[in-house]
Design brief:
The complex is a heterodimer. Chain A is an alpha+beta fold. Chain A has eight helices and six strands; from the N terminus they run ββαααααβααβββα. In chain A, strand 5 and strand 6 form a beta hairpin. Chain A is elongated. In chain B, 60% of the residues are buried. In chain B, helix 14 packs antiparallel against helix 15 and helix 15 packs antiparallel against helix 17. The longest helix of chain B has 18 residues. By secondary structure, chain B is α/β, with parallel strands linked by helices. The chains are: A alpha+beta, B alpha/beta. At the A-B interface, strand 2, helix 3, helix 5 and helix 6 of A face helix 7, strand 3, strand 5, strand 8 and helix 13 of B. The complex binds flavin mononucleotide, iron/sulfur cluster and FE2/S2 (inorganic) cluster. FE2/S2 (inorganic) cluster binds next to helix 6 of chain A.
Chain lengths: 196, 421
């Protein structure tokens, strides 16, 4: 969900969503994934090329290739997309298409700790809105933005299959739940101290 | 009650090969390879009435037979572990606790459908499952259950590749999963041709849910009649039901297919929290339309759920008590489908944001009675969608309107504030 209903206000009242989401998104957002890789990061491209070599033997492994890039850079820079296309011999448009299709890939640099909080039914009933609110408050930024210390980002996502731990969240790939708003400060401290 | 697919969950380190072997693991595979032809296996599975636990409940034995009868080679087996239906976590538990049982089922499926290659595809968010399944596959290779000349039979080979997704509900749809395996965007493909003839890489493919495959070894060991009799009435076997929402114990229990929702929610889930009353429940994940307490005694199996205008789905039972707002519940479902629509076809790409918009309008006190009719019309037009996601997306919203209409009307006629979001 890119736009919460609060984004649309008519006479100070929340208004219903515009008819065509697609048009609205392009108006609001500059196309991601266009910024060239900073000079200091470029040596890592050689590492990426090495890591792509075994994938050449596995047809259809563009997802793994994109994971390899994201592990190195924290996101998928445009140079990585070009390189994956060259090495795996598939069209660049296809690699870009895959990178933008799956929600776990980011075309913008990401903090080291991505907090994915489930917003779906079971977690919602169990208090996910309060959990998301507590995270936003504790980090001092709304969802989708890096925290000022550059350590965290909160992403509000679809069901994580952790509904038995409702309300649930992932810290990168580590499962947490149920997480109550009061647990948030300690959880963030644990992550900062490397125990998350 | 005899357990089938969860029977090892309480064992020490049940995810290791040693533990699985101790509880009789891979004996079914050994029996199949020693005593049965591929035809025998498909006849056995057909006789057991095992049907697909991924939600479509297609007869599993028949599927394997279709694949075997297609002359194109190499044939494939694929494990569908993309589980992403809101309110569902049954496959995750199987992958984390007993990956070998699914792998054994996969190898039996490969033998029965004469397949020599396989993929084990797990959604990207299931980190612990990735580790457990990768380790289990390695163990199975080392023990000679995978690779060339399985269990000393030099005419039976199976090479399995582990794959993970990267966040997309639609990839659980089988043809979308094939596109994902081929390194493409996870858009669905047109059916027919069906996966059994035109699956991954255009080759015959037996794709099955984790829970379906995990049931196969027990059927081999204990027989078709035994499995069939585990279910209630016409339904065969067991199902993992998992509870969440406003329920005291959000747990997963394996029960006979066809138990009543009452037994699942009240006896195993402990009902709603003290001081609250049950308002309704969903029988099988977000895609299923909600039911009322009056329908608690309906058996949770595909046929009776269809008669009630909902679906059996995944067995993800979501419970609502009197604090839940059914308009908000419908809105949550709509948001999910709006987010997860792959955008490939117009009825779904445009229909899902419209569902959201109508729900928002009603929640904001700006809805009209016409909106309720509009939902029906929109639902009808979304039946023209390209795949199941579009066909299902409007059902929970319309189902909520038909069973909890007074709540929608209360918003429309004022008197309700916007629920907390
Ligand atoms: C939108 C959509 C999502 C689906 N997601 C899943 C899923 O996550 N896991 C699954 O096993 N089947 C899913 N299915 C069903 C599969 O297409 C397919 O029927 C199933 O994997 C077949 O295996 P089975 O016969 O063992 O159930 C989905 C279907 C649709 C239409
Ligand atoms: S119905 Fe929805 S998910 Fe299916 S192809 Fe169309 S847009 Fe994609
Ligand atoms: S609904 Fe939150 S993890 Fe499933």
């Amino acid at each position: 969900m890119l736009n919460s209903p609060a984004n649309f206000q008519v006479n100070g009242r929340a208004a219903a969503r515009p008819y065509c989401m697609a048009i609205h998104h392009t108006e609001l957002e500059t196309p991601p994934g266009r910024e060239p890789l900073p000079e200091a990061e470029r040596p890592k491209l050689d590492t990426l090329r090495e890591r792509l070599q075994p994938l050449k033997e596995l047809p259809g492994s563009s997802i793994e290739a994109l994971y390899a890039a994201q592990e190195l850079f924290s996101y998928v820079p445009p140079e990585a997309i070009t390189m994956i296309a060259e090495e795996l011999k598939i069209p660049e448009s296809q690699v870009f298409g895959v990178a933008t299709f799956y929600t776990m890939f980011s075309l913008e640099p990401q903090p080291p700790n991505v907090l994915r909080v489930c917003r779906d039914l079971s977690c919602h009933l169990a208090g996910a809105p309060k959990l998301i609110g507590a995270l936003e408050q504790e980090l001092g930024v709304p969802r989708g933005h890096a925290s000022p210390d550059g350590q965290f980002i909160v992403k509000v996502v679809s069901c994580l299959g952790l509904c038995d731990m409702q309300p649930a969240m992932l810290v990168n790939l580590d499962q947490h739940g149920p997480v109550m708003p009061d647990d948030v400060p300690n959880l963030l401290d644990d992550i900062r101290n490397g125990a998350g | 009650m005899e357990l089938v697919v969860t029977r090892n969950f309480g064992n020490p380190k049940p995810w290791t090969l040693a533990s699985y072997r101790e509880s009789g693991g891979y004996e079914a595979l050994e029996r199949v390879l020693k005593e049965m032809s591929p035809e025998d296996v498909t006849e056995l599975i057909k006789a057991s009435n095992l049907t697909g636990r991924g939600g479509a409940f297609f007869p599993t034995g028949l599927k394997w037979e279709f694949v075997r009868k297609d002359p194109k080679t190499p044939r494939y087996v694929v494990v569908n572990a993309d589980e992403s239906e809101p309110g569902t976590y049954v496959n995750r538990l199987s992958l984390e606790l007993d990956p070998h049982m699914t792998i054994e089922g996969m190898i039996i499926a490969a033998y029965a459908s004469n397949a020599e290659r396989g993929y084990f595809y797990i959604r990207g968010e299931y980190g612990l499952s990735h580790e457990r399944v990768k380790a289990a596959l390695r163990e199975a290779y080392d023990a000679g259950f995978l690779g060339q000349g399985i269990c000393g039979r030099d005419d039976f080979n199976l090479e399995v590749e582990f794959r993970r997704g990267a966040g997309a509900y639609i990839v659980g749809e089988e043809t979308a999963l094939f596109n994902s395996l081929e390194g493409k965007r996870g858009n669905p493909r047109f059916k027919p041709p069906f996966p059994t003839n035109f699956g991954v890489w255009g080759l015959p493919t037996a794709i099955n849910n984790v829970e379906t495959l995990a049931a196969a070894p027990a059927i081999v060991m204990k027989g078709a009649e035994w499995f069939k009799d585990l279910g209630i009435g016409d339904a065969a076997g067991t199902k993992m039901y998992c509870l969440s929402g406003n329920v005291v114990n959000p747990v997963c229990v394996e029960l006979p297919l066809g138990v009543s929702a009452r037994e699942v929610i009240m006896d195993h889930g402990g009902g709603v929290p003290e001081g609250r009353t049950l308002k309704g429940f969903k029988p099988g994940g977000a895609s299923s339309a909600p039911l009322t307490p009056a329908e608690l005694d309906a058996p949770l199996e595909p046929k009776s759920m269809a008669e009630l205008g909902t679906i059996m789905g995944t067995g993800g039972v979501v419970v609502f008590d009197d604090t839940a707002c059914m308009v908000d519940v419908a809105y949550r479902d709509a948001l999910f489908f709006e987010d997860e629509s792959c955008g490939f076809c117009i009825p779904c790409r445009e229909g899902t944001p419209n569902l959201v918009q109508i729900c928002e309008r009603i929640l904001h006190g700006q809805g009209t009675m016409d909106d309720l009719d509009l939902l029906e019309e929109l639902g009808a037009s979304m039946m023209a969608s390209f795949c199941g996601l579009g066909h299902f997306a409007h059902q929970p919203v319309r189902g909520a309107v038909s069973r909890f209409r007074e709540e929608f009307e209360a918003y429309i006629h004022g008197g309700h504030r916007r629920a907390e979001t």
